[in-house]
Specification:
599 residues, alpha/beta, DHBP synthase, 20 helices, 35% helix, globular
């Protein structure tokens, strides 16, 4: 039985194919259209899923859409009526889109895909919960889902057992941790539903001087993690902005203008909202543990991508094991909807590995053969050197050891926002200048942004205060004292972005200013080529980890095709790119006006 899961029309549209309970393929629409966070109906992602399995739309038994449009529309209309006549500008902008398009999902699916089969609509947080629990390596587990808002729900928790899934309690709109965090994202001059991770990355530069103000004025937080927001400070109910003039007055100024200088005030605000988020998630996790008694926890929803908070929950040892859906946001809702249909609706048996999850390292997207790649290279007369799988690890490790920055394009594309060793840009973590070089010459982004390491799994507890695996780069932990460098007296007093000047460890390119890192553990069985390359780097440098950042430049989605990878390579400071078995050196290239794509 083939089930197609779809998410669309908010942000990060995606499609997923589940066949007889097995996750076969999944991809975000943005990777094909090259429009970051593309929310349009995911025609390209759907076509990929069908083509990958050599299926026609008539072979699909069920389509599962990740939420219930009519209930979401009910919430929107009820909110506007409650605040009427305020919000008329937002009403005029939003409602026609719903009446013309978003309400008629069944018709759109049938028309766009020429589909005549069965269509089901799980609730939004049911899809998140399903994406968290069903692929996990647990037969039984508690789950928590936290995001901006689905239909009405903003936070839920419950229990999964076998093929069953039950939501036990929820918080409802407008009281939302995701929207609270997004409000601060907006106020700090970043893009909502896109740049929340910038707030997380900025937080360690500041001090939590506004934490008490947030807890006293903006949010009524209970011991069990439930809360109510003071809505007089927010505008997202019916306005075109997230916050209002009262919010500005509370924090002594208007929102930061995007792309302007970031001051210590913004850093302190970022730190304060991150600390509040950590506290809320820890309290929720403690309450869920008490209510369910489960030893295992699964997380999903956009807030579950906050790996700092995830790391705090891990350190509290509330649960023995934690598993986070790598595509935790709305993209993962497509996967959750398909799995919900298979297990909950159709009541199929669920078999659990107990060691490995069923997400397949989240390498679920398109791949490209060497024949395809060499045809592209020759068609565009691009110089290259041919390698083979035996000498790739040694060659790339040698280049990294010498300080080169490498574009790594191998196998199936990742599903979710993290590059996991398939569409990655790699660097040497031992070089103090690497973080600055990669931010300014490769990613063209803010200098405060940290980079993540990929580390051989067996060395994780040697380098970090973390004793588990983290294959999806969704936990943060601190670098161990043995690898830290003692600070000079003058370095200890540095504030704000001045902290960037300090070499804090023997792996400075992946050590954030608070000594933390968001890491990916690499298993030799999961991604052998990537693992062997890092192992070769270890042999050359005595360092079992490398810098791993997503293969894209600022404002673009992660690359999907060899053509995308080549364009990124040519317009950034990347020194070499490895496309399958073919190594390209920047010094050998000539600028091509218009790369010809392979059709």
């Amino acid at each position: 039985m083939n089930i197609l899961g779809i998410s669309a029309f908010y942000h990060d549209s995606a499609a997923c194919l589940v066949s007889d309970g097995e996750i076969i393929s999944a991809a975000q629409e943005e990777r094909f259209t090259r429009i970051k966070h593309d929310s349009s109906f995911p025609v390209n992602a759907i076509n990929f899923c069908l083509k990958f399995s050599k299926l026609k739309i008539s072979d699909i038994d069920y389509i599962a859409f990740y939420d219930k449009p009519f209930i979401k529309f009910e919430r929107i209309m009820e909110t506007y009526l409650t605040y009427s006549p305020g919000g008329i500008r937002s009403f005029v902008k939003a409602v026609p889109l719903w009446i013309k398009q978003k309400l008629w999902l069944k018709d759109i699916i049938q028309k766009e895909l020429n589909y005549t089969g069965k269509i089901i609509f799980p609730e939004h947080h049911e899809s998140h919960a399903a994406s968290a629990f069903y692929p996990s390596p647990f037969q039984d587990a508690a789950f928590i889902t936290i995001d901006g808002v689905g239909e009405w729900t903003t936070t839920s928790y419950g229990i999964g057992s076998g093929n069953d899934l039950k939501i036990l309690s929820e918080l409802r709109y407008p009281h939302s941790l995701g929207l609270l965090y997004s409000a601060f994202t907006y106020y700090l001059g970043f893009k909502v539903n896109s740049d929340e991770y910038k707030v997380m990355g900025l937080a360690p530069y500041g001090n939590p001087v506004y934490k008490d103000k947030i807890l006293n004025e903006l949010i009524d937080l209970k011991d069990d993690g439930s809360f109510r927001l003071n809505m007089k400070y927010f505008n997202y109910n019916v306005g075109l902005t997230m916050t209002n003039k009262k919010f500005n007055k509370l924090f002594n100024g208007a929102p930061r203008v995007p792309e302007t200088k970031i001051t210590e005030r913004e850093m302190d605000i970022a730190r304060s909202i991150q600390d509040v988020t950590d506290e809320i998630m820890i309290r929720i996790a403690g309450h869920v543990k008490k209510e369910t008694g489960s030893e295992n926890l699964c997380l999903a929803g956009g807030v579950a991508l906050n790996c700092v908070a995830n790391g705090k929950i891990y350190r509290e040892k509330i649960f023995k094991r934690i598993w986070v859906q790598p595509a935790a946001g709305d993209a993962g809702g497509a996967l959750g909807a398909a799995l919900f249909a298979w297990y909950k609706v159709l009541q199929n048996q669920r078999n659990v590995d107990y060691v490995h999850d069923s997400q397949k390292c989240s390498l679920l997207g398109p791949s490209f053969t060497d024949d395809y790649i060499i045809k592209f290279l020759k068609k565009n007369k691009i110089p290259f050197k041919t390698l083979n799988e035996k000498n790739i690890p040694e060659t790339v490790a040698s280049l990294l050891a010498k300080g080169n920055i490498i574009g790594w394009f191998q196998g199936r594309m990742e599903f979710g926002p993290r590059a996991l060793g398939s569409r990655s840009i790699l660097g040497n973590p031992q070089m103090p200048s690497m973080q600055k070089t990669m931010n300014f010459k490769i990613k063209f982004r803010e200098g405060f942004r940290p980079f993540a390491p990929s580390i051989l799994k067996e060395y994780i507890s040697k380098y970090f205060y973390f004793d588990d695996e983290s294959p999806y780069m969704l936990f943060v932990a601190d670098v161990k004292n043995g690898f830290r460098k003692p600070l000079k007296k003058s370095e200890k007093t540095l504030q704000g972005l001045g902290k960037l000047k300090v070499v804090r460890s023997s792996i400075p390119a992946v050590t954030h200013v608070d000594y933390s890192a968001r890491f990916q553990t690499v298993d030799k069985d999961d991604n052998p080529l990537y693992y062997n390359m890092i192992k070769q780097f270890y042999k050359k440098t005595e360092c079992p980890l490398i810098v791993n950042t997503s293969f894209n430049q600022r404002g673009e989605p992660i690359v999907c095709s060899p053509e995308d990878a080549y364009n990124c390579f040519m317009f950034t400071g990347i020194d070499y790119v490895l496309l399958g078995n073919y190594l390209l050196s920047k010094k050998d290239q000539q600028l091509i006006d218009d790369v010809e794509f392979i059709k």
